[in-house]
């Protein structure tokens, strides 16, 4: 990254001559077009405000130019220097701005990453007598929650919801990891055991909680298990009464030999099974058990509408028998 | 997000009374400690400089306080307003700062994501007569390149280098995806075919180029194939002459039925096989073929030292027979 000083009617050669920034290059504002966007520019605040350029910029001003300074600030300049009160050392500030620039360009493709993440979630399946739906709402750009489902070769529906410890970009890396298991196994036990073995082998330092189910859409028989996940599955009966399906083992990634307990039940007509991430209870107030009660109450009365601002990723996977 | 106005000797009640920001709350600077870090603070520039607080802040100043303004700016204040020249409308600026705040907190865990990504790369394997090494240097926080290797059940080394189209967070999501194939297959054909089928099924909209090899460390027989990857594998012979191993098919993710051509060779004592991502040639000048020539020349004379500043992710996987 080079540093360019824009020629101006005010003589700023003393900036260029500062010993600790040896390579400041003088340039006219018209020649800026030919300079790559990652280089640093130092320019008089009035010239900056009269033009637009993409390079990160430090503006030079006099003490009484407060209004110009705040405008340059709002327009995206990176720092300001007062001409007769230049910082003792320019190099550390330039170094800090370079790091800030790197940081900003790192975050620039988070929206693209978020689109790709949503794209990896499977599209709705057409299953006779059943409807599978989901809500997938990250607290920030990227989610640490995941969900997936597919039909097994013997025409059963395998579906799961997972919550990677933490949130944001680090956890989302493991949602990409989870997406690679799509279609690979045909039972909750086999899927979760394989995920667990690999997670322990790779020593990722993050555990994952999972709720996983297997439905036979002809007999309506359901088997399911939980790997350390909270909240538990919620079953809404046809009369809108609710049932919490309790069962648990360790989360994935903690122990080499994971013992999973499979539970079974049957889905009646007009019943609904819900898997939720803990972000779904955190939108309610009170202790954990009060939060769960409110979530169940909300889901069973069909008024669930997640708020815009979340403190944790929120994901709900719903399977309804018609 | 609420907006707090810090009490100051200067009467700033006209800010609080602006009609388009209805809910500005007056507060003393000492009470700021009890306010969550995501709320917005408006404060006199001198008070801001005399204290430190974590909340995003707009400073109020007079036009002649340029020096205080640039200091507040450098200290991390988010914007400045001149008291007698307040913007016509405060609400859009506050809205913009809120979005900027969200964007900044999104990018805050990129370093943690980068550490996790590096952690998923396997540690060096102890293979008699062979040494496996790598360079893995992202252009930004996260890399769109990947590499992996493992011993198959019949004691052969399966190893590959992959380059996901694009770079940064979006591409890194698919490096997490790739990491989940660790140990899953025992031949280049089987591995790349399975990756390709899933990538096409999931319709991720990103292709992946791969170089994949399988070494028998007893017979020194090597088979390898390329899925649309450039540069090709480079073989350095014991006398330091070099050979480009040409072969290619489509990248992963483009066609349902991927036909891969497997090539074979044998590794002599003191020979070295190198898989490189295209970031390794982009550090050289000239056209693609000049760049490749310079890379090979550099690698064969053992002076390879990647520069600090990269425009593309750089990854090299090296397998040397001792």
TrEMBL record, chains A, B:
Keywords: Hydrolase
Organism annotation: Aquirhabdus parva
Organism ancestry: Bacteria, Pseudomonadati, Pseudomonadota, Gammaproteobacteria, Moraxellales
Pfam families noted in UniProt: SpoIIE
UniProt xrefs under InterPro entries: Bact_Sigma-Reg, PPM-type-like_dom_sf, PPM-type_phosphatase-like_dom
Molecular functions per Gene Ontology: phosphatase activity
SMART domains: PP2C_SIG
UniProt KW Hydrolase keyword: yes
Protein name: Serine/threonine-protein phosphatase
């Amino acid at each position: 990254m080079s540093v360019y000083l824009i020629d101006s009617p005010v003589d700023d050669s003393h900036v260029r001559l500062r010993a600790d920034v040896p390579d400041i290059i003088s340039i006219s504002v018209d020649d800026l077009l030919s300079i790559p966007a990652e280089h640093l520019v130092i320019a008089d605040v009035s010239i900056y405000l009269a033009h637009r350029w993409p390079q990160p910029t430090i503006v030079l001003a006099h003490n009484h130019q407060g209004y110009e300074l705040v405008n340059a600030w709002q327009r995206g300049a990176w720092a300001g220097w007062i001409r007769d009160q230049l910082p003792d050392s320019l190099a550390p500030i330039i170094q800090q701005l370079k790091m800030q620039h790197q940081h900003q360009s790192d975050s620039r493709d988070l929206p693209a990453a978020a689109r790709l993440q949503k794209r990896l979630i499977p599209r709705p399946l057409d299953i006779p007598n059943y409807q599978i739906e989901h809500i997938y709402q990250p607290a920030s750009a990227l989610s640490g929650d995941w969900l997936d489902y597919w039909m097994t070769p013997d025409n059963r529906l395998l579906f799961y919801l997972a919550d990677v410890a933490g949130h944001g970009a680090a956890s989302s890396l493991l949602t990409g990891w989870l997406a690679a298991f799509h279609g690979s196994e045909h039972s909750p036990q086999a899927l979760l055991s394989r995920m667990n073995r690999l997670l322990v082998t790779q020593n990722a330092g993050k555990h994952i909680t999972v709720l996983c189910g297997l439905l036979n859409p002809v007999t309506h028989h359901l088997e399911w298990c939980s790997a350390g996940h909270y909240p538990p599955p919620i079953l809404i009966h046809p009369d809108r009464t609710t049932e919490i399906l309790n069962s648990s083992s360790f989360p994935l990634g903690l122990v080499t030999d994971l013992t999973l307990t499979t539970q079974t039940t049957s889905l009646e007509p007009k019943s609904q099974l819900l898997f939720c991430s803990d972000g779904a209870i955190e939108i309610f107030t009170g202790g954990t058990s009060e939060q769960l009660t409110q979530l169940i109450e909300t889901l069973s009365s069909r008024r669930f509408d997640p708020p815009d601002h979340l403190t944790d990723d929120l994901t709900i996977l719903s399977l309804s028998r018609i």
